[in-house]
Design brief:
By secondary structure, this protein is α+β, with helices and mostly antiparallel strands. The chain has 2 helices and 8 strands; from the N terminus they run E-E-H-H-E-E-E-E-E-E. The strands form 3 sheets. The chain has a 3-stranded antiparallel sheet with strand order 3-6-7. Strands 4-8-5 form a 3-stranded mixed sheet, with no helix packed on it. Helix 1 packs antiparallel against helix 2.
């Protein structure tokens, strides 16, 4: 075979492949390129490791902030519950204290009524009337008002509770014909609806 003759090897597709020799300079250049690529990969891995540590640090910081906020919220919730319970206890004590005088007078009236005779019945009645007025004064003092309701008033479901219904030609339609129990409200809140009978 002559020195200048080329050697061909068959490729997978049946085409001849040229066998090329690599010179020393080309081999060095290829090694340098491979080293540069390896350095680039190492730098990228270092950057990714740095990004991971940054993400981990951010996560730890967010977790710490969350735990701090959660602890503050729990403290606020417990403090609010205690304040609410304290306010409720104070309100019950204030209202009860206002009615203790009424309770005392009821006890006195009962004692008087047990020993009353026919001549003192009028005195017992006056005592009960005084207790009723005292009760109304206490309710007014704490801001509770009686819901005005009398026979002939128009029935209002927001203020009245109808427990009976009758037909009465002397009254209009949907009119209160009798009041069985007074209703009370505190400002705009109904404590108890007036219990009534409605006509027609």
């Amino acid at each position: 075979m002559a020195e200048n003759d080329e050697i061909f090897f068959p490729a997978d597709d049946g085409e001849p492949v040229e066998d090329t020799e690599v010179s020393g300079e080309e081999e060095i250049a290829q090694k340098d390129a491979a080293e540069v690529e390896t350095d680039d990969i190492d730098e990228e891995e270092d950057e990714e490791a740095g990004d991971t540590s940054d993400v981990s640090s951010d996560r730890d910081e967010l977790e710490a902030r969350y735990m701090s906020l959660y602890a503050e919220y729990e403290n606020y919730r417990k403090r609010s519950m205690k304040e609410k319970e304290s306010l409720y206890a104070d309100a019950v004590a204030d209202v009860t204290g206002s009615f203790l005088g009424v309770m005392d007078n009821i006890d006195r009236a009962l004692t008087t009524a047990k020993s009353a005779d026919a001549n003192s019945a009028e005195d017992v009645l006056k005592g009960i009337e005084m207790i009723s007025k005292q009760t109304a004064d206490v309710l007014a003092k704490i801001g509770v008002e009686e819901i005005e309701c009398k026979t002939g008033d128009a029935f209002d479901p927001a203020l009245h509770e109808a427990v009976m219904h009758i037909d009465d030609d002397s009254l209009g339609e949907g009119v209160v014909s009798a009041v069985f129990a007074k209703g009370y409200k505190y400002k705009d809140k109904v404590i108890r609806h007036a219990v009534v009978q409605v006509a027609n």
